[in-house]
Amino acid sequence: MRVLVVEHEADTGIQRVGRALTAEGADLDIVGPEVGAPLPADLRGYDALVVLGGSPGPEDDDIAPWMPQTRELVRQALEAEMPYLGICLGAQVLGVVAGGAVGDAVQPEVGLCEFELTPAAADDPLLSGLQEDAGRLRALQWHFLEVTRLPGGSVSLARSGACANQAFRVGRNAWGLQFHLEADAEIARGWAEPESTKLAGLGLTADEIVDGMAADEEWLESTWGGVARRWLAIARASAPSVTRS
Q: What's the pTM?
């Protein structure tokens, strides 16, 4: 399996998800402005697409000139029903490309936050295995934007009190996850320490966020590493023949 990974910023890498995918034999091709590798013109030669998080919005083309090509790759993935995983900004890109809307979060979520699955998740190929732990799902959140209107025909899979669209599926093979399943305590420290003033305004400290992630690492690794492996299994089972043309 050859997976294209769009990385918007060097401090927002694929981490936990990448470790899980490579351990299962996937070949990751990481591209993006800070990697020094330009985004390809199309998805030929790839079996699946991952778009990671980052500080720009999904249509901030003025400060992120690679964003139009990111949206084009997501459009191609949707058209070909290529397996897609969008994380945070990647979920917002999916929402916009598929016809939804993204706007300011009414209540930004930062730090280790809980959320729940919707009833529709019970039948979802990716998230159904988490149903028994729905009341205690948690992951690092770091978003001030969110999908405010889901695309038509999409399926809502997870929600929190602050964010109605924590996870959703578009079509058969495209998932948007607002939360950072890839993030570990190291990532949390890199994001939190430079933002101490902003965090104070939210009633948080960097140490509080990092310590919470570190204390929960075993559960986070088992749960979200497992979701990453399940996504790869789905991709293996349904990778479109167009990638070999």
A: 0.94
